[in-house]
Write a structure and sequence with these properties.
Number of helices: 13
Helix content: 25-40%
Distance between the termini: 25 Å
Number of domains: 1
CATH superfamily: NADP-dependent oxidoreductase domain
Strand order of the largest sheet: 1-2-3-4-5-6-7-10
CATH architecture: Alpha-Beta Barrel
Structural class: alpha/beta
Order of helices and strands: EHHEHEHEHEHEHHEHHHEEEHH
Organism: [Candida] jaroonii
CATH topology: TIM Barrel
Protein name: Pyridoxal reductase
């Protein structure tokens, strides 16, 4: 089933899975603001996104859609990760359980969104072809879940999936600091098969922001910060300092050439890749939608501004990227085996 992916999306992780998540009522108000004031019709969440044992991400989104018409909305939702062990699990039994959990959560919702179920991380114990066939079968039998997708897949896994079944959506990390999808060839396969991408961490978990290049940024990421990525490699002082020159080049481009913030440039760059012709060895880049997230309304206003880049400007930024080396992997050694799997 071909599914229209809106041009704007919002990641809800910061509403339920941070060091200090907002109160339930505050999170619902943020979703309302995005829906009514920013016209958001694509919300992204995950089974793991839960700091409060009594309230998870799925409950938040289903409660929101009880009050708002979701019939023209997409809700892409990551599963296939065991919440007790944090290990990927794409077994038929586990998938069945999560489909039932999603259905149960939306029982009270009258005008339901179209749900796309994403594999959160690749289960290397199971052939992707088998998982793809099973998910395609499940989707064909389900009224609420209309498509399925993959997060953090490498080119080989993606090729096996698209060669076996219809993949509705990819959730991959793309930013001016993270080019794995381009360098490894995953973007080419997605483009060849026309699979749209929502690009998570388009601001590199906060590094590609004005605050990210400000003095004292690492000190700001203390225990009370909502940024749970502070323990990742690029936030180590030695890597942060080594990347600062690169970050400041991008900051200068944003402020001096585009008269915008670094975070606005970061989002515009990801959007600007979408549909780009003759990029690297890709005839035309597939649709890419940045997936920002914030629990701060002031930040949200910036995230959905109308800064746009021409194809020439995207390539100028690509030249800046190509002339720099990024220090530190995007997660850390613990998570590295689950990336581009």
């Amino acid at each position: 089933m071909s599914i229209n992916i809106p041009d704007k999306a919002y990641g809800t992780m910061s509403l339920t899975w941070t060091n200090t998540p907002p109160k339930r009522e505050e999170s619902l108000e943020i979703l309302k603001y995005l829906y009514e004031k920013k016209g958001l019709r694509h919300f992204n969440g995950g089974m793991l996104y839960q700091s409060d044992p009594a309230f998870n991400n799925l409950q938040l989104l289903s409660e929101f859609f009880e009050s708002f018409d979701g019939s023209d909305c997409i809700f892409s939702f990551k599963g296939c990760i065991n919440k007790m062990t944090y290990m990927p699990d794409s077994s038929p039994e586990f998938i069945d359980t999560e489909f039932l959990e999603i259905a149960e959560a939306f029982k009270k919702v009258t005008n339901k969104p179209k749900v796309i179920f994403n594999i959160g991380r690749i289960d290397k114990t199971r052939p992707m072809e088998e998982v793809a066939k099973y998910l395609q079968k499940k989707v064909s039998q389900d009224e609420l879940i209309v498509g399925w997708g993959i997060s953090e897949c490498g080119p080989e896994t993606l090729y096996k999936a698209v060669s076996t079944a219809e993949v509705s959506l990819l959730e991959l990390e793309i930013s001016m600091l993270t080019q794995d999808v381009i360098d490894l060839g995953t973007l080419k396969i997605a483009s060849d098969y026309g699979v749209p991408i929502i690009a998570y961490s388009p601001m590199a978990k906060g590094l590609l922001t004005d605050k990210g290049v400000s003095p004292g940024y690492l000190e700001y990421l203390g225990p009370t910060s909502r940024v749970i990525a502070a323990g990742f490699d690029r936030f180590k002082p030695e890597n942060y300092e080594a990347n600062l020159k690169f970050l400041k080049q991008l900051y200068d481009y944003a402020h001096n050439k585009k008269n915008c913030s670094l975070q606005q440039l970061a989002l515009a760059y990801v959007s600007g890749l979408s549909g780009l012709e003759n990029f690297k060895d890709i005839t035309k880049v597939t649709k890419i939608v940045p997936l920002p997230g914030s629990a701060n309304l002031e930040n949200i206003d910036q995230l959905y501004s109308e800064v746009k880049l021409s194809s020439t400007e995207v390539l100028e930024i690509q030249d800046i990227i190509g002339s720099n080396t990024v220090h530190g992997i995007r997660y850390n050694s613990l998570f590295a085996p689950t990336l581009n799997a």
